[in-house]
Design brief:
Elements lengths: L10 H23 L6 H8 L3 H7 L3 H26 L4 H18 L1 H10 L5 H20 L11 H18 L10 H9 L12
């Protein structure tokens, strides 16, 4: 009788693991040297892999960088969504939860945060657009949790998210990302302030 055994780990899982090794390697290389200075050889060495394996997954350094940016964007938005879902229905609670998740991500996934928010313009045009897609996603999420009687102009969300992003970028540039969570109180007030009605916050 012939016994057929299934592999313990699927090919899809192995491929995903290999891709993530390369994207993390390129993120760490960007953190060290900046995107423009790194080569495929640097990425392969950091991932402890081979050029052949790299080219099985990516057609070029630019393609790998784009995959990294997409991964970083999706990871951050997923963390924000999960935090908001657990925070209840209040505007303040959701803002605090979303900001806390984002700032913790910056502190713990600094290489990905820097690649997404600082280094993206160094890549081709499609890479340049990914941070703007992130901002658009955060704007939509902010609008979705606003108090029912919020009266601020529609463009307020874009201004608020843009300003918060600039502050976080400054933290990354100055080399103090581990302190990002300390910004939570001030950023929470900054985000909520335009939506306060007559000095008193309204809840949905």
């Amino acid at each position: 009788m012939t016994i057929t055994t299934r592999p313990l780990v699927s090919r899809e899982l192995i491929a995903r693991y290999q891709r993530e090794r390369f994207t993390r390697a390129i993120a760490e290389a960007c953190l060290e040297s900046g995107y423009s200075a790194i080569t495929v050889a640097d990425i392969v060495a950091a991932a402890r892999s081979s050029r052949n394996t790299f080219y099985e997954h990516f057609s070029s350094k630019d393609a790998a960088f784009f995959a990294l940016l997409e991964q970083a964007k999706d990871d951050l938005l997923q963390r924000v969504d999960a935090a908001c879902a657990e925070a209840g229905t209040g505007f303040t609670e959701r803002v605090d939860a979303a900001l806390a998740a984002a700032l913790e991500w910056v502190a713990t996934e600094t290489a990905f945060a820097k690649a997404l928010l600082i280094d993206a313009p160094a890549g081709p045009e499609r890479c340049f657009l990914v941070p703007w897609e992130l901002i658009d996603g955060l704007v939509l999420r902010l609008r979705s949790i606003l108090p029912v009687d919020a009266s601020a102009p529609e463009t307020t969300a874009e201004l608020v998210v843009g300003a918060v992003t600039s502050i976080v970028k400054e933290v990354l540039v100055t080399g103090e990302p581990s302190r990002a969570p300390e910004l939570l109180p001030s950023l929470s007030t900054f985000v909520r302030l335009p939506y306060l009605a007559e000095g008193k916050q309204s809840e949905p």
